[in-house]
């Protein structure tokens, strides 16, 4: 048995010639020509090969530790526990991915059967709009089908053509003039389907094309009448369609500037109104929050949020989530929006002039950090609190026992048990945030017993945490109903 194990261990060692080739390849790449020449000469004389073979035998007998290059190239290189877990997770994801694809194919099969059934009824119905509606359904179904057959990989390598964009805008305006709500929904959803289908690296350019073609007729008329009337129509499907397209446009700063053309905040006000009318966690509410969060990168929209009581609304939403299940997207984007609101000089000045309200906000946020809220929301709440840890709010901080409660939270959070590696990483991130945002300044030269808090660097950290660089992400939810 001992001999068998020895042979097995020896066979697992990489071949010396293989190692030589790796070394020569590296020397060539690094232009170590003299070293390479000497190395090759020694190999040809078989001096190195013999030495290595002898050395390996000595290692086996004495148990001396192998050089690291042997360990790196060992054929049976042991995998870490993390790598094994990642492989298992990858297999599970692949299995679920295939199940989703299969379900998608089955849905398309049912959809095609329904379209065929509607076609058979078309003649008897004698409805002029039915033919056009069916054609629109076919076009949209075909585009979604391409996404499925490509297994989720975007097919589009080109932007929507100028002609197609113009046709969509013309049809949208005509359906609006004819008060044909279903027609407006079809055009808006068709534009969004094109946005979802296009390759990620082209999405930013697509947003610019929608703006250049003035899809909402804002710049050409210098008014917001068209889009405001669309938002005012009390039809859930239309509100879903228009909100999802506005969310696409708001994905870039230029898009936000288009939606707030000439500093007019009417679209933001309408979105806030629709947001508050929706059932918590609904698809349309998610799109409204996506719009407001993305638009909040522009400081000029913040006064509109404050005066439309978005601070109170978001705090109430987080409070409800403690005892009621609310969609994770809503909580994540709402709390991120709150952080962006409180961060601005306008809001901080507003809170200074509203000391009682500032106290209420601080007190509620401090309560949240001890509640069972999701980690991303907790991070946003901590960021909000860091913005309020200023001398201007010293009275509120004292009344709320701000410093003591932050210290108690850090002490409590440091010892919580984590179920898995991901939870451990989240825990470390939260504690790192606290260390950066609430770390006491050096008071060794200060006779005062007051503990001051370091102010979080303005936009750098919040922008780093909510990274908006790279490819755009257009929201798409599993439970959307078109």
How would you explain this protein's 3D organization?
The chain is mainly α and 482 residues long. 71% of the residues lie in helices and 0% in strands. The chain contains 25 helices and no strands. It has helices at residues 2-12, 16-29, 33-44, 47-62, 68-73, 81-125, 128-149, 162-177, 181-197, 203-212, 225-232, 236-249, 253-259, 266-277, 283-295, 302-307, 310-323, 328-343, 345-352, 355-368, 375-388, 394-399, 402-414, 421-438, 458-465. Helix 6 (81-125) runs antiparallel to helix 7 (128-149).
Layout of helices and strands, plus pairs?
Elements: H1 2-12, H2 16-29, H3 33-44, H4 47-62, H5 68-73, H6 81-125, H7 128-149, H8 162-177, H9 181-197, H10 203-212, H11 225-232, H12 236-249, H13 253-259, H14 266-277, H15 283-295, H16 302-307, H17 310-323, H18 328-343, H19 345-352, H20 355-368, H21 375-388, H22 394-399, H23 402-414, H24 421-438, H25 458-465
Helix pairs in contact: 2-3, 6-7, 7-9, 8-9, 9-12, 11-14, 12-15, 14-15, 15-18, 17-18, 17-20, 18-21, 20-21, 21-24, 23-24
């Amino acid at each position: 048995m001992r001999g068998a194990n020895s042979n097995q261990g020896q066979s697992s060692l990489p071949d010396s010639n293989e190692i030589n080739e790796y070394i020569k390849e590296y020397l060539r790449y690094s232009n170590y020509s003299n070293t390479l020449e000497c190395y090759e000469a020694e190999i040809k004389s078989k001096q190195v090969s013999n030495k290595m073979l002898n050395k390996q035998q000595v290692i086996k007998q004495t148990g001396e530790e192998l050089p690291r290059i042997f360990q790196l190239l060992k054929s049976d290189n042991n995998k870490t526990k993390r790598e094994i877990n990642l492989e298992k997770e990858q297999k599970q994801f692949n299995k679920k991915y295939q199940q989703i694809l299969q379900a998608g194919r089955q849905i398309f099969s049912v959809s095609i059967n329904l379209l065929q059934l509607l076609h058979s009824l078309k003649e008897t119905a004698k409805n002029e709009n039915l033919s056009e509606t069916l054609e629109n359904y076919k076009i949209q179904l075909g585009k979604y089908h391409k996404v499925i057959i490509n297994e989720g990989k975007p097919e589009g390598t080109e932007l929507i053509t100028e002609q197609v964009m113009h046709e969509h805008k013309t049809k949208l305006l005509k359906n609006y003039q004819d008060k044909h709500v279903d027609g407006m929904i079809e055009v808006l959803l068709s534009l969004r389907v094109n946005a979802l289908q296009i390759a990620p690296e082209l999405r930013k350019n697509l947003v610019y094309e929608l703006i250049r073609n003035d899809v909402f007729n804002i710049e050409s008329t210098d008014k917001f009448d068209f889009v405001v009337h669309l938002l005012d129509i009390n039809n859930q499907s239309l509100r879903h369609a228009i909100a999802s397209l506005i969310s696409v446009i708001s994905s870039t700063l230029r898009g936000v500037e288009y939606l707030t053309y000439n500093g007019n905040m009417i679209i933001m006000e309408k979105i806030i109104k629709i947001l508050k009318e929706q059932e918590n966690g609904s698809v349309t509410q998610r799109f409204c929050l996506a719009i407001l969060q993305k638009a909040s990168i522009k400081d000029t929209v913040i006064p509109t949020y404050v005066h439309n009581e978005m601070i109170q609304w978001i705090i109430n939403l987080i409070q409800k989530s403690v005892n009621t299940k609310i969609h994770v997207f809503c909580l994540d984007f709402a709390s991120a929006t709150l952080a962006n609101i409180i961060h601005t000089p306008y809001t901080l000045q507003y809170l200074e002039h509203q000391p009682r309200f500032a106290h209420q906000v601080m007190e509620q946020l401090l309560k949240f950090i001890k509640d069972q809220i999701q980690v991303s929301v907790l991070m946003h709440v901590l960021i909000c609190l860091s913005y309020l840890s200023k001398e201007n709010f010293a009275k509120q901080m004292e009344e709320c026992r701000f410093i003591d409660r932050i210290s108690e939270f850090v002490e409590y959070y440091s010892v919580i048990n984590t179920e898995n590696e991901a939870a451990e990483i989240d825990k470390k991130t939260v504690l790192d945030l606290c260390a950066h945002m609430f770390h006491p300044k050096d008071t060794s030269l200060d006779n005062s017993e007051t503990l001051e808090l370091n102010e979080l660097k303005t936009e750098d950290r919040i922008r780093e945490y909510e990274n908006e660089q790279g490819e755009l992400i257009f929201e798409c939810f599993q439970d959307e109903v078109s």
